[in-house]
Amino acid sequence: MEKQLRILKYYVVVCTTLLGIVSLVAFKRSGERLNVDEITAKRISLLDSAGHERITIEGSLPGRRSALSGLLFHHSNGTEAGGLVYRGDKTNGEVSAGASLTMDQYDDDQVVSLQYNQQGATRSQGLSFIDRPDSLGPVVLGYYRILDKMSAGPVRDSVLQEMRAKAPPGQLAVRRLFVGRDTSKAAILNLSDRNGTPRLRLMVDSSGNAAIVFLDRAGKAVRTITP
Questions:
Q1: 216 and 154, same structural domain?
Q2: Which structural domain range is residue 79 located in?
Q3: 149 alpha carbon, distance to own chain's centre
Q4: pLDDT tens digits along 60-97
Q5: Which of 170, 187, 219 is the last residue of a domain?
Q6: Mean pLDDT of the region 194-214
Q7: For the whole model, what pTM was predicted?
Q8: Which of 127, 141, 172, 192 is deepest in the core (most CB within 10 A)?
């Protein structure tokens, strides 16, 4: 019995020692660079030195953006700062795809956007600059709280239309500049006023015809200059 107890004590001592060595090695390796050939994950978070989540890599974004995959950037307070995302699918031979690189106004939505969108044979791509108010009023904030919880679809679209109809013009985001290729296959540069209405357009249409177009406050062409 005493011999067995001595063996058991030796066994405990050896196991404890080995466990300590393994723990020290693991602790040491936690601060080292990890080199691997492949990582499989649904979500990866990158933190700053203070432990704040600053970049997330997701195979499927949460909520109404579940069709999108990519990178999201965050401010130190946790709010979204922009992202690089994409989607793509082909159903019954029809392509539905898109990709965007966006930069958000602090604690708000995108103000710079490089986008590609395609639905079937209809396609557009370009760079947009967007104006947003310095601070949001109660009407828009109220709608945003509702919209953030809604999935994409006709119901959400109708709430968006209602917000645009009720919100003061200065509270709405408007696209001030677009340069790219539109759905009519024209290469185009649109400059818009503070209400988002295009006022000056430089374009080369799908047939190769060039023009400079001046538009009034309603967006109606009032003068066109051609070669």
A1: no
A2: 41-129
A3: 17
A4: 998 878 899 999 999 998 889 999 999 999 999 999 99
A5: 170
A6: 96
A7: 0.75
A8: 192
